[in-house]
Write the structure tokens for this entry.
Amino acid sequence: MSKMYEPNKGIFQNPVFKDMDDYKSLVKKFDDDYADTWGELARDNITWQKPFTDVLDESKAPFNKWFKDGKMNVAYECVDKHAKERGDSIAILFEADDGTNIKISYKQLAINVNKTANLFMGEYDIKKGDRVVLYMPMILEAIYSMLACAKIGAIHSIVFGGFSSQALRDRIIDAKARLVVTADGAYRKGKPYMLKPAVDEAMKSGCETVQNVCVVRRNFETIQTEPKDSFYDEHIQKQSEKLETVWHDSEDPLFLLYTSGSTGQPKGVQHNMAGYILWAKLTMGWVFDNRPEDTFWCTADIGWITGHTYIVYGPLANGTTTVVFEGVPTYPDAGRCWKMVEQHGINQFYTAPTAIRMLHKTGQDEPKKYDTSSLRVLGTVGEPIDPPAWKWYYEVVGQSRCSIVDTWWQTETGGHMVSPIASCTPIKPGCATLALPGISAQIIETDGEPTPIGEKGYLCITKPWPSQIRTIWGDDKRFVKAYFGDCKIHGKPVYFSGDGAMIDESGYITITGRTDDVINVSGHRIGTAEIEASIKYSGHVAASAVVGKPHEIKGEGIFAFIVLKDEGSISKDDLKLELNKILKADIGAIALLDDIIIVPDLPKTRSGKIMRRILRSIVKGEAITQDTSTLEDANIVGIIENLCK
Ligand code: WT7
């Protein structure tokens, strides 16, 4: 068993969890009184304009209702409450690509959110329940727009700026959005980049539900103006700073966020108000030991769930200072992050293994050049972290003083699920450790039997939790099938995450990775079926199979096996160029193929199903242990193996 690292108790002052006994007693409390314990936490942590009548209604499971009939407001929780109590505290510390800083107090944030909400309602006629797509860079107006939607009960759907116009259009259409908020562009590595042209392209067809496109001017590059466009800055000054809080139902939708699954069509994951904000707030305090007086930096983009929960909603609900960073961690040099830690006195730093590997590789000694003694907690998320990256993060960045929290969770879970608690959990490199109090994580076989210690099983969550996905937008059936179709305990379907995991003799959970056809590229999910659907657009391709291949920095890279319509009709290099052009236009740069191989055929069963597991073993250079007797042509395995050598 690898070494355990005890938390450095001296750096945590009066934490929520002083030791593992505190952790165990809360776990026991949940075991004894599940609903009551959640009810108590909800009463203590959220301002209820009208108290809820029932903590958890499972009568229509898995369409559960939390904190039924309660009235609250997520923006009040994140902004107005703190503006009233400690209005001069800094809510957001914005650092631009060029290093300039803007500090926004809670009082100012309340004003800016109100003005933005008044703009959305007054100028664009946005009402509660309307969908607003945000296609935005990492700038303050993006955060104001999210919170403005929350305040008035409009449902935001953020589309990551790296997605193509086609992907943006698909998401606008699926959500039937009424408003798109975007920017001309922003800055990256000292240069302007553009977003607005992709919106113009998307709007060319099928987006008839969109009434207005609101454009924030950030880089002032020349853009085309279309009839539906108007400029944020031209309208915002005249908006009122005041907006009476309207109270929403606990179960009103807060946002949609599209993510990849095992089919070609992305899923609009829906989160609702009270349950989501409760867990976002609690995990900030529990996992990160974050307090209002701290400065917290999560390096994600707001286009992903990590940005939603741990740049915006969690930190602000907890009343802390959250860092919003426009740039990239390696510009102007690999010391940028550590310089920012020193300059802003950052207490918790949260990033992904892919970034850690890159910073390690490009700037191993950079952290030593800065005073990083303000750090108490270092977080990682998105994919398993490998031992060399962990060691560097712990010893060099954290100077063997900070806790590392390896947080396992998903778009669908809203917040952390399996993770160390910085102040109390002994940690083990590469291990997400234990389920958080209130979270019933179990590793089981599909029939519900617990998987033996040290063996891979399916990571399931066996009880509902407040920040659980409520449905897939517009597709309740797919929601049930995607998450409750695979694993059962005593015949009752339980939530299956899609991940495999192992438990060790001390009960610690190690995540082993996806068990479905989803690849994890730099901590981002991408479905193999989505990529294969795009590849079909090439006139050269008869069939393809896409798998993940281990990659030094990205964790996994995308690898495609291609069967040509006419053998020899195109070279491998030309085909790769063509396919990547298609993928860039259809999905975005995150879906680019790292490598391809042209093969005469794919390993298919007699019923025509491609056996991807065999292909996965081949790209990893592993021996083929799978049964190949069901294959239509077993010889193809040896042929492909030889081509890959
Ligand atoms: C998938 C969820 C949750 C925010 C980022 C990604 C993988 C996530 C870990 C971790 C190993 C992890 C899983 C999961 N994952 N955290 N600490 N260790 N794997 O959100 O796009 O919804 O992806 O990321 O495979 O299912 P997402």
